[in-house]
């Protein structure tokens, strides 16, 4: 078989960009991205895509309507495809056994059942969502239990390693593509088919094949290692603040060791994003279920440290503002979980803002990409406040950072958007209350210049 038709179930942050790049790089393949959300599909078919990713608009424009299609016709997508990616969300369970830790696989299972129900002929089913180890076994089980005589399946694991804000570049030049398959002739054949798709643009030596279970666990382990680096440097940042060392200098010195390397050592207000926390908790849950409590505790500490960092930063703001922020106005710069994305899932900004709102602060929030509605949703959600009406009266969103800073007692930087470096802080200072404070949760501004201007400056991992 040569793959001619690909279907991707789930038109989200992973399914959309991944399949757009596949369509762009493989003009000989028809790619159909399907989703149950009519709204999302409508946006994929419009000029304003549902997600912001640098470079993505051009790729979609180039292929949409030629060999890239977005629709809600899931059954048609499955029927026509030789290979189906499952790219749906796998959130943390919010109820029942494993609540707050285990991955909820109900959307993955729904896809497997839908595929079993409507598929005809032979299909390669590719698990692209991040899942617990051995999830592919459950998918295979559902598929085989529902198989009709003329239908057969091979299930592969092909986790995605793209990071938001750099998705297109990561997809075009991946560090590696990982494919896990069953160790059998049928498994090898399916792996070769998926490999063939990637070889359209990825050098062969970057495509790694493993067993299905190793592939699934490698994805969880990669995210756990990355998150652990951020928590490690953030733990060191607390020591720096207590001792007078500078975490940037420490990170640079540590990162020069070629065994450690310089990446992912940027101390911050904490990591956010839809996956680090979820995947760590998933790993913790798996370890607990496997009766490995020491392993579970080890990884749990990485998320505990992250929570500590966010809270520590929020408390420091209150302390510096003379132990009260009640009725004080704070301009918040950045609400997305990192720069170059409009995504706010698990953004540290949600937690820091909630803490400040709880203390009675008035927040003027500016983010270049996050929609005001999203900010409102995040700050009034029941997971962060039991008094949404009160919270609603305490914050406003702004499309102009200078307006946001007007009459404010402090500026709080929570996302590392490059544009924040180029603001006219003198102009802002002139419109602010005195003493004027800047709390740089991303260590990205020129602090000596700000101090010279007359700001009282605070940042992570350094005392002034
Ligand atoms: P997302 O929430 O942005 O998108 C998931 C989409 O799946 C939604 O549009 C939803 O409507 C759709 N969906 C859910 N169930 C469906 C069903 N039964 N039929 C049709 N559509 C359905 O999620 P995402 O951020 O793209 O993440 C998807 C998976 O990829 C997750 O497992 C995540 O852990 C993993 N992942 C995410 C990233 C990232 O940067 N966001 C990176 C690597 C891996
Ligand atoms: C992360 C991984 O980097 C991807 O490889 C993975 O595919 C993805 O999760 C996933 O599975 O969802 P992402 O969450 O999009 O990607 O973004 P990262 O660049 O990893 O940043 C995560 C968070 O850590 C952000 O809040 C970022 O600001 C923070 N961070 C990152 C730091 O605070 N310091 C650093 O040095 C690096």
Automatic annotation (TrEMBL):
GO terms for molecular function: NAD binding; UDP-glucose 6-dehydrogenase activity. InterPro entries: 6-PGluconate_DH-like_C_sf (IPR008927), NAD(P)-bd_dom_sf (IPR036291), UDP-Glc/GDP-Man (IPR017476), UDP-Glc/GDP-Man_DH_C (IPR014027), UDP-Glc/GDP-Man_DH_C_sf (IPR036220), UDP-Glc/GDP-Man_DH_dimer (IPR014026), UDP-Glc/GDP-Man_DH_N (IPR001732), UDPglc_DH_euk (IPR028356). One of its GO terms (cellular component) is nucleus. The active site is at 275 (nucleophile). It holds the Pfam family UDPG_MGDP_dh. Residues 331-447 form the UDP-glucose/GDP-mannose dehydrogenase C-terminal domain. It comes from Penaeus vannamei. SUPFAM superfamilies: 6-phosphogluconate dehydrogenase C-terminal domain-like, NAD(P)-binding Rossmann-fold domains, UDP-glucose/GDP-mannose dehydrogenase C-terminal domain. Belongs to the UDP-glucose/GDP-mannose dehydrogenase family. Its EC number is 1.1.1.22. This is UDP-glucose 6-dehydrogenase. It catalyses: UDP-alpha-D-glucose + 2 NAD(+) + H2O = UDP-alpha-D-glucuronate + 2 NADH + 3 H(+). NAD(+) binds at residues 10-15, 35, 40, 88-92, 129-130, 164, 275-278, 345. Keywords: NAD, Oxidoreductase. Pathway: Nucleotide-sugar biosynthesis; UDP-alpha-D-glucuronate biosynthesis; UDP-alpha-D-glucuronate from UDP-alpha-D-glucose: step 1/1. The keyword Oxidoreductase applies. SMART domains: UDPG_MGDP_dh_C.
């Amino acid at each position: 078989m040569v793959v001619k038709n690909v279907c991707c179930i789930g038109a989200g942050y992973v399914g959309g960009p991944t399949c757009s790049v596949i369509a762009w790089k493989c003009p000989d393949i028809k790619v159909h991205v399907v989703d149950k959300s009519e709204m999302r599909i409508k946006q994929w078919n419009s000029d304003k895509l549902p997600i912001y990713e640098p470079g993505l608009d051009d790729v979609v424009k180039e292929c949409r309507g030629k060999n890239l299609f977005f629709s809600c016709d899931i059954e048609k997508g499955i029927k026509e495809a030789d290979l189906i990616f499952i790219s749906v969300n796998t959130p943390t369970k919010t109820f029942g056994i494993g609540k707050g830790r285990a991955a909820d696989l109900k959307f993955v299972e729904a896809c497997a059942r839908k595929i079993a129900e409507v598929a005809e002929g032979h299909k390669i089913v590719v698990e692209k969502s991040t899942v617990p180890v051995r999830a592919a076994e459950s998918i295979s089980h559902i598929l085989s239990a529902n198989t009709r005589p003329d239908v057969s399946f091979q299930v592969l694991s092909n986790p995605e390693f793209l990071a938001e804000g750099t998705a297109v570049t990561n997809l075009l030049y991946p560090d590696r593509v990982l494919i896990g398959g069953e160790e059998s002739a049928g498994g090898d054949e399916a792996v070769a088919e998926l490999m063939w798709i990637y070889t359209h643009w990825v050098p062969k030596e970057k495509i790694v094949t493993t067993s299905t279970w190793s592939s699934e666990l490698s994805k969880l382990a990669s995210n756990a290692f990355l998150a652990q680096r951020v928590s490690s440097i953030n733990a060191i940042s607390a020591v720096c603040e207590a001792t007078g060392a500078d975490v940037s200098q420490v990170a640079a010195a540590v990162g020069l060791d070629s065994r450690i390397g310089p990446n992912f050592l940027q101390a911050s207000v904490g990591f956010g994003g839809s996956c680090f926390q979820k995947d760590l908790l998933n790993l913790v849950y798996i370890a607990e279920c496997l009766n490995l409590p020491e392993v579970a505790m080890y990884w749990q500490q990485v998320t505990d440290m992250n929570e500590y960092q966010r809270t520590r930063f929020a408390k420091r703001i209150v302390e510096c503002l003379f132990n009260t922020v009640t009725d004080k106005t704070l301009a918040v710069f950045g609400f997305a979980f990192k720069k170059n994305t409009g995504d706010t899932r698990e953004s540290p900004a949600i937690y820091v803002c909630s803490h400040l709102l709880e203390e009675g602060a008035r927040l003027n929030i500016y983010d270049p990409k996050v929609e005001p509605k999203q900010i409102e949703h995040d700050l009034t959600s029941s997971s962060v406040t039991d008094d949404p009406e009160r919270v609603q009266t305490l914050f406003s969103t702004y499309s102009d950072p200078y307006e946001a800073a007007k009459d404010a007692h402090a500026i709080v930087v929570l996302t590392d958007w490059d544009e924040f470096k180029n603001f006219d802080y003198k102009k802002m200072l002139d419109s602010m209350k005195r003493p004027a404070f800047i709390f740089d949760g991303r260590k990205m501004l020129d602090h000596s210049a700000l101090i010279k201007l007359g700001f009282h400056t605070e940042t992570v991992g350094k005392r002034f």
